[in-house]
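**User:** Hello, beginner here. Are you able to go through the protein record under this note? It all follows right here:
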Amino acid sequence: MTPTTETIQQHHDPLKILFIQPVSPSSEKLSRRFLYKIRAYPPLTFETLTAVTPTNCDISIIDERFQTLDYTTPADLVGITCMTPEAPRTYQIADEFRRRGATVVLGGWHVSALPNEAKPHADSIVLGEAENLWPQLIHDYQNHALQPVYKNDKPVDLTMLPAAQRNARRKIMFVAAMQASRGCPMGCEFCAASNCLDGHRHRKRDITQIVNEIRSLKEHYLYFYDPSFTINPKYTKELFRAMADLHKSFVCFANIDLLDRDEEFLTLARKAGCRQFFIGFESINQETINALHKRSNTVEKYAATIKKIHNHGISIVGGFIFGFDTDTLETFDQAIEYHQTLDVDFLEFTTLTPYPGTPLFDRLDREGRILTRDWSLYTQKGNVVFQPKNMTPEQLLSETRRVNQEFNSFSGMSRRILRFKRMEPYRIVNNILQYL
């Protein structure tokens, strides 16, 4: 029987729960900068878990991007979530808290992908989404019956999920994290999000609940964690209409095919407060796009669609990846030439990274092309962790840096400064900080 809040509250001593967001190597140095602390986004996972935690529990949240972790912090139960580049730091933290007598629970994408690796560092691990399992886990812990593994037998029903509770998070925050839906059926070979447990199942929250949650927020700027706002356009349009009078500004992810053909979607997005889309263009080579099975992308439509989006006063962060099997050394010069004519406000160039649990990792592993299992190097920037097909790892890294330097250096950014008129001041500063 699934425990209720009432049955758990029979234990009168407050259970001290400490949630920890480990810092990844890519943000450890940045986290020391004051401006980074202002613009970085909160970890929504813990705010959501707090909402399903019994009220007699004493919850603290430590986000290492902004705070120094103190191992003497009182904690009965320590919950840590991690993605792949954070895994070594996660295990280090977990081992130390266990040494000090705390019970440690690990979860997150990386733990779900490699449970046997994570198990030795935890008293219990959670595979997949945790909201259905967390109340039961706490009940089991309080009754000395904690299980070594908790795994969902069905996806979380978002319509039954309460709004995130933000009272335990840090005080300095200008951006509120939000989520309207989960899951992406696209299934790109390299994507950790859509290839994790239940990651391909698209589910939606109740729109009234979302609006009420947004109304309760003090922050003006919202960051939606949804994999894409364009998966179910009918639902998203209803959400946009409901958000039109909230007077908030937000950023979200989107696929380019719908933005190309649906002017109403763009009109409603702007009225709702959308100021920026993050679009995974991935490549300027249609052969590469076809190999990825990313049905939403047609390279020849990129330029015209970008113009449509800009006509509605919405800016774009464009994500591009180098290192696919169709890429050659000529690809980088072609990219520089192409992007000099492509009117994207901010360009993010990364190296292909085969995360564990993805079809890409499995394929490259079978082919003997995984060069390291030092997960701290799996940052998408600054490292190449596999053997590219048509170049050396060093060439992939240096050429990606060259393209980034061309477009994201101070001089490269200044050439696009006039385009910032589409953006609010905070958005300008926020995006510039991403390249510092």
Observations:
- The two ends are 51 Å apart (CA to CA).
- Residues 167 and 263 are 39 Å apart (CA to CA).
